[in-house]
């Protein structure tokens, strides 16, 4: 684990757009277009429904079809996967490299700028990504437990009413964790060991323990569920993601989660 420093945001940004983040002071005024992630998790959230509707329209447009041609639950699963991948990636990077965040994060702590296609803007509380007094750091296991019980669980609970199985939603989380470690390793091969170790600490948490398999010979990750994105193609005949439980015997299209 490297020594935390004020340059941690720059360091993480160098690992790819999904690891990049900005910072804000806890309790500071929220200025549009920033929004709190807690808005998504509110029951009957218009923000969440707006996000799912936008993703549904985007998926349908890819094949020149109207939005209603794509099942709402498919759009919800894809929207969920995009959100958790964006939220988990910088936290996994911080945990692996700096033993941060220094305290548990809540959905209200996380600010995001809604956008489709790629990594949207994300801001974390400055106090949480600054080393605690005395330079003490936290274990990755503790950070993983807090993250999965906090913002990630809130997102799972928010998307479940869209008729998406919780098995699929937690599988999305596991896929996002593995994807974050894969992305960090690709950007900086020298960080492969801490990134993979951090990912394992996430994947060993109770919520994710039964969501995936890891090949004992090569460490290949395979989820035990499907994010459903293949169903967005005409006739539900699209390619599946490279880590999908359905990938054997079918055409894959790489990670497919970002």
Characterise the protein shown here.
41% of the residues lie in helices and 7% in strands. It is built from 7 helices and 6 strands. Strand 3 (111-113) and strand 4 (121-125) form a beta hairpin. The longest helix is centred in the first third of the chain and has 27 residues, at 72-98. The protein is globular, with a radius of gyration of 18 Å. The two termini are 27 Å apart. The relative contact order is 0.16. Residues 1-7 and 254-258 have low confidence and may be disordered.
Offer a quick outline of the entry.
The protein is of the alpha+beta class.
Descriptive tags:
alpha+beta; 258 residues; disordered C terminus; four-stranded mixed sheet; single chain; disordered N terminus
Straight-line distance between termini:
27 Å
Oligomer: single chain
Please state the CA-atom Rg, rounded to the nearest Å: 18 Å
Shape: globular
Q: Element order, helices and strands?
A: HEEHHHEEHHHEE
Give the averaged pLDDT, no decimals.
90
Name the strands of the widest sheet in spatial order: 1-4-3-2
pLDDT below 50 for ≥5 consecutive residues: which ranges? 1-7, 254-258
Helix and strand composition category:
alpha+beta
Distinct helical segment count: 7
Biggest sheet statistics: 4 strands, mixed
- Helix percentage range: 40-55%
Number of domains: 1
Q: What share of the residues does DSSP label as strand, in percent?
A: 5-15%
What's the number of extended β-strand segments? 6
């Amino acid at each position: 684990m490297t020594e935390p420093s004020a340059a941690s945001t720059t360091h993480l940004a160098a690992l790819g757009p999904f690891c990049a983040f900005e910072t804000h002071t806890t309790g500071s005024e929220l200025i549009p277009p920033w929004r709190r992630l807690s808005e998504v998790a509110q029951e009957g959230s218009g923000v969440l429904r707006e996000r799912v509707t936008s993703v549904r329209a985007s998926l349908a447009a890819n094949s020149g079809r109207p939005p209603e041609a794509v099942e709402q639950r498919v759009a919800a699963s894809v929207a969920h996967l995009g959100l958790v991948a964006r939220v988990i990636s910088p936290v996994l990077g911080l945990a692996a490299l700096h033993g941060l965040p220094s305290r548990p994060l809540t959905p209200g702590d996380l600010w995001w700028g809604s956008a489709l296609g790629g990594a949207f803007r994300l801001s974390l509380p400055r106090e949480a990504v600054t080393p605690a007094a005395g330079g003490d750091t936290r274990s990755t296991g503790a950070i993983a437990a807090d993250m999965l019980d906090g913002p990630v669980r809130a997102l799972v609970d928010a998307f479940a009413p869209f008729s998406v199985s919780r098995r699929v939603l937690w599988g999305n989380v596991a896929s996002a964790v593995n994807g974050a470690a894969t992305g960090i390793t690709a950007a900086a091969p020298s960080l492969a060991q801490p990134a993979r170790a951090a990912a394992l600490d996430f994947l060993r948490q109770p919520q994710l323990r039964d969501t995936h398999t890891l090949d004992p010979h090569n460490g290949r990750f395979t989820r035990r569920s499907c994010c459903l994105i293949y169903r967005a193609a005409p006739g539900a005949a699209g390619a599946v993601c490279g880590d999908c439980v359905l990938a054997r015997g079918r055409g894959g299209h790489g990670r497919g989660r970002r």
